[in-house]
Design brief:
Length: 40
């Protein structure tokens, strides 16, 4: 599954790691933890 900027992804509850860069929060998720996606 290819994921691009702007896609909405659904993932397992405890899979993301939260990362903060320059005051902005990001979620880092393994590809295998993505269950589904919606393209805009």
């Amino acid at each position: 599954m290819d994921v691009e900027v702007g896609d909405i992804v659904y993932f397992t509850k405890y899979s993301p790691d939260e990362l903060e860069v320059n005051g902005e929060k990001y979620l880092v998720i393994r590809h295998s933890s993505i269950l589904a996606k919606e393209s805009k």
